[in-house]
Amino acid sequence: QMQLVESGGGLVQAGDSLRLSCAVVGHRNSDYAMGWFRQAPGKEREFVGGIGWSAGTQKYADDMKGRCTISRDNTNNTGTLQMNSLKPGDTDHYYCEVEPIQRPDKVGVEAAWRYGYWGQGIQVTGSS
User: Fold this and answer.
1) Among 40, 49, 36, 18, which Cα is nearest to 89's?
2) Which residue, among 122, 100, 101, 121, has the nearest Cα to 2 in the 3D structure?
3) Confidence band, pLDDT 50/70/90 cuts, at residue 7
4) Tell me: the pLDDT tens digits for 59-98?
5) Maximum CA extent, the chain
6) Cα 30 to Cα 105: distance, rounded to the nearest angstrom
């Protein structure tokens, strides 16, 4: 059974940088797509960015382009979300989501419906 363990959240101020990590446990290989999503209370979950199984495909939400980089280490089955120049609107609960794939993977990494595994999420909170 695949499990995801997220880490790295905390208090941030506008302009800060923050790295979130996601460890994929219980999967034998790196054939999975990974997406990062966030959700504020009372709002729908929204796409932040995603990365394909080979890391050759990366997509970002429009407001994250230029401020966000997603990477993955297929040897250690981990993924990271690096966010820079944080804004007050980035305060959210962030989720790493994963779905095993069969090559070739033609489904976009931004497609929220494709992901069947997600972690408990991690909070990023803006401090005044």
Assistant:
1) 40
2) 100
3) very high
4) 999 999 999 999 999 999 999 999 999 999 999 999 999 9
5) 46
6) 13
Nearest Cα neighbor of 124 from 25, 34, 17, 44 is 17
How far is residue 23 CA from its own chain's centroid?
11
Which residues are CB-contacts of 46 (< 8 A; sequence separation ≥ 6)? 37, 38, 39, 61
Q: Give the contacts of 34 (CB within 8 A, at least 6 positions apart).
A: 22, 24, 50, 51, 70, 72, 79, 96, 97, 98, 109
Per-residue confidence band for 1, with pLDDT thresholds at 50, 70 and 90? confident
- Residue 103 structure tokens: 């090559």
Rounded distance between C-alpha atoms, residue 25 and residue 2, angstroms? 6
